[in-house]
Design brief:
7 helices, single chain, 225 residues, seven-stranded mixed sheet, alpha/beta, globular
Length: 225
């Protein structure tokens, strides 16, 4: 199944709003770090329901663009967003429909690892960013997060699982300076008492705490020279 088919199904079944609810726990902290200004143009790569651009518009960015490989996702995002300065487009992560040096920031939450060629995607991000522009790339599916390793079995789209070091290495290979890298813990999700386990695929409460409180979301920030 293609990325388009997979996520069209997700959007049609309402899973886009479910992703928004879960991702917001850490996405809100990542978005708060972005050094956006009123005139900035921002791309949300793998926009899903478009929640990130709605949040950034509340901070006054000038223009937001949401790109997704799923027509149904972009259709839903348009329906959720009543804002003439936010637009959504169906597109390929490896061929971004933007001119060189045309964007101030790129944000991506839980989508980058779906890129068919992740290094090519990084090169495209580097191309469209203006000098000094930033790429805030947030993922839960990464090598050190052992609790994510079985996710591939639940989705037909091939995913790329890089380590923290591989993210830094590939950002640099694409021409982006690595400004920071850390993990953002999910402290909002409710973790039940030990008696409730197994729960949500976790055999023990300790494993669930480890996944959300210790590993959380890996954030790598790249800056265009």
């Amino acid at each position: 199944m293609s990325v388009r088919e997979e996520f069209d199904d997700w959007a049609a079944s309402g899973r886009d709003k479910g992703m928004e609810e879960r991702h917001w726990h850490t996405a809100k902290h990542v978005l708060a770090r972005m050094p956006v200004e009123e005139s900035d143009a921002v791309l949300d790569l793998g926009t899903g329901s478009g929640y990130a651009l709605r949040a950034l518009r509340e901070r006054g960015i000038g223009r937001g663009y949401g790109l997704d490989g799923s027509p149904e996702m972009t259709r839903n995002a348009r329906a959720y967003t009543d804002d003439p300065d936010v637009g959504y487009v169906v597109g390929d992560f490896g061929d971004l429909p933007f001119a060189d040096d045309s964007l101030d920031h790129v944000f991506s939450m839980e989508a980058f690892y779906y890129a068919a060629d992740p290094l090519e995607t990084l090169e495209e991000v580097r191309r469209v960013l203006r000098p000094g522009g930033t790429f805030y790339c947030a993922v839960n599916y990464y090598e050190e997060n052992v609790h994510s390793h079985d996710w591939q079995a639940d989705i037909s789209v091939e995913m790329t699982r890089w380590s923290r070091a591989e993210y830094r290495e590939n950002f640099r290979a694409a021409g982006l300076h690595v400004a920071e890298q850390d993990t953002v813990a999910d402290r909002d999700i409710e973790i039940p008492d030990a008696a409730a386990f197994p729960h949500e695929g976790f055999e023990s409460r300790e494993a669930m705490v480890d996944r959300y409180r210790r590993w959380g979301t890996l954030l790598t920030v790249g800056v265009a020279p």
